[in-house]
Design a protein that fits this description.
Number of strands: 0
Helix content: over 70%
Largest sheet: none
Shape: globular
Number of helices: 24
Oligomer: single chain
């Protein structure tokens, strides 16, 4: 959006023989990352609110499934839901956060340097020149003024363009759709989420960089509550159109949920004496310039394009195929969502460490986060595969969603779950790539390779295996992307120890396989889907823990020790 001087210097190469030395501007007080207790509290608060939001998301899907089933109407609505899915990925979960969290982290680092008199290496001359031009203002407020107004204008224009081109989008996304007119109407409603999600994503990134994690974690609670309320109130008059209206209103609720905290941390109006006509944007604005924004946007678009591929291929299958695939993904992705919670909390810390030159600390944090994310997602994958039919029956089988829909959705979910580790690792690995403030196209290239594999494999498999072929192609594509990102991170950005990470994965995968097999074998022994699913919540973690300890996976022992220590401390 704006251009500025060069970005901060890149970290030392991966082959350095000793840990890099922090530059003179690296501070141990204001610049140092918070301790483990802060991270634990922030992660716990985020986990609780995310769990509530996810639960409400399931209630939202249950409500839609109960009222409208899995047929042509829901297929039309889900095609329109492609817009908010893209908007959420680009404007909340990926691109906005990957650009703005490092930008605000750098601005905060420069603010701290100015207050203590220590300036990061290479910035003394730039700061002196800025002072000579009358621009010695707060870097955070300057970044806000340089980016937020332009962003809001761009988002409003983008939302209007999507609404205008809705007929073309529907035809391109699902040419074989049974009711394209309904999909066009719903798409025009959901186009408003581009503005709402973009604003909410900006607020979330700025607040997380300020180490305020609770307000951003509430956005999906507000979003899903708004959708559920709207659908229940208006479905009799509007039908499935009420869901589209609820999605649009929910995006506004996301903004309102964060607005008070945003205004506390980042007042929109700067003090009068600091507003100078000749003031220029801070160096942190480089991180939102086109050269850095473009690769992030292309990566996010490529990642979310997997959904386009899936729905395009599924639109030629019998009615309900898109719905079955959608419900399967919504449930299966829950373990991935929780596995990335820690990465969400630590990403601002990694970005701040990179801005302050503490590369070794960033490396250790990233390695630890990768293995903990893998532990959580593999445990969830084992449970999802073992108890897929029971989960879908408990969550969705009521009203218009019948037993045949349950069977079809559960079988697709088991195949889709095979790619959850790849999804989780890709989400965790991409963050360090964009923490340095330097433009890099490697993540977009890795995602393009995975997307190409998804397209080719899906086109070849769909005529033979239907939605199962689509789910398998998704798993193959994202796993390939994760492997490429793991290799590229070590050679290009951060000297992580790939062998250590892969060795940890090599211990966790067999443990998850054993847990999934045990759960699958135990599922038929208990009557009733709810009791079976609850029993699985005990069987799978128990077998996973025993198997992981048997193969000496240190991540499980470390996590168990941390939990028991916290429990003793609470008592």
């Amino acid at each position: 959006m704006t251009t500025a001087p060069t970005a901060p210097a890149p970290p030392p190469g991966p082959h350095a023989s000793s840990p890099p030395t922090a530059p003179p501007g690296a501070r141990k007080s204001s610049g140092a990352a918070p301790g483990g207790r802060f991270v634990a509290r922030a992660a716990a608060a985020t986990a609780v609110l995310t769990a509530v939001g996810s639960f409400l998301g399931l209630m939202r899907d249950q409500t839609i499934a109960h009222l409208f089933g899995a047929g042509s109407d829901t297929d039309a609505f889900l095609v329109s839901w492609t817009v908010p899915e893209f908007a959420a990925t680009i404007l909340i979960e990926d691109a906005m956060a990957l650009v703005l969290v490092p930008a605000f982290s750098l601005a905060l680092s420069r603010r701290a340097a100015g207050r203590t008199g220590d300036r990061p290496a290479g910035e003394a001359a730039a700061t002196d020149r800025a002072t000579d031009h009358g621009a010695a203002e707060d870097p955070v407020r300057a970044l806000l003024a340089a980016t937020l107004p332009r962003l809001l204008l761009a988002l409003a224009c983008a939302a209007g363009t999507v609404a205008l081109l809705a007929p073309l989008l529907v035809h391109a996304l699902a040419p074989g759709l049974a009711d394209p007119e309904l999909a066009v109407f719903c798409t025009r409603m959901t186009a408003l989420t581009v503005l709402g999600f973009g604003t909410a994503g900006y607020f979330s990134a700025a607040l997380r960089a300020h180490r305020s994690f609770v307000p951003p974690a509430t956005i999906y609670v507000a979003y899903n509550l708004t959708i559920i309320t709207t659908v229940l109130l208006l479905h009799g008059q509007w039908g499935v159109r009420a869901a589209a209206l609820g999605v649009a209103a929910g995006s506004l609720a996301m903004v309102l949920a964060q607005l008070p905290a945003f205004l506390r941390h980042l007042p929109v109006r700067a003090p009068r004496e600091r507003r100078r006509r000749g003031a220029r944007a801070p160096r942190a604005a480089t991180l939102v310039a086109g050269t850095v924004l473009a690769p992030v946007a292309v990566f996010a678009l490529s990642r979310q394009s997997q959904v386009l591929v899936e729905r395009f291929l599924a639109s030629s299958l019998p009615p309900g195929a898109i719905s079955h695939l959608n419900y399967a993904q919504k449930v299966a992705q829950l373990p991935m969502t929780f596995s990335l919670l820690l990465c969400t909390v630590t990403f601002p810390l990694v970005a701040r460490a990179m801005a302050d030159g503490r590369t070794e600390q960033a490396r250790q944090r990233v390695e630890r986060d990768l293995l903990l994310a893998a532990l959580v997602v593999l445990l969830g994958t084992a449970y999802v595969i073992a108890y897929a039919p029971q989960l879908i029956e408990v969550l969705f089988q009521r009203g218009a969603f019948d037993a045949s829909d349950t069977a079809a959705t559960a079988s697709v979910m088991r195949v889709y779950a095979l790619g959850l580790l790849g999804h989780s690792l890709a989400g965790a690995l991409v963050r360090p790539f964009f923490s340095t403030g330097r433009p890099t196209w490697y993540p977009a290239g890795a995602m393009a390779v995975g997307l190409l594999l998804t397209v080719v494999a899906g086109a070849l498999a769909t005529p033979y295996w239907g939605v199962h072929g689509i789910a398998a192609a998704n798993a193959a594509g994202i796993t390939t992307t994760a492997l490429l990102l793991l290799r590229g991170l070590r050679t290009r950005i951060l000297p992580i120890r790939v062998r250590r990470v892969t060795a940890g994965l090599g211990r966790l995968v067999p443990a998850a396989t054993a847990a999934g097999a045990a759960g699958w074998a135990a599922a038929p022994l208990i009557d009733g889907p709810l009791l079976t699913a609850l029993a699985g919540g005990l069987v799978v973690p128990a077998v996973f823990t025993v198997a992981a300890l048997a193969v000496r996976a240190p991540e499980v022992a470390t996590l168990f020790t941390a939990v028991t220590r916290r429990f003793r401390h609470v008592r």
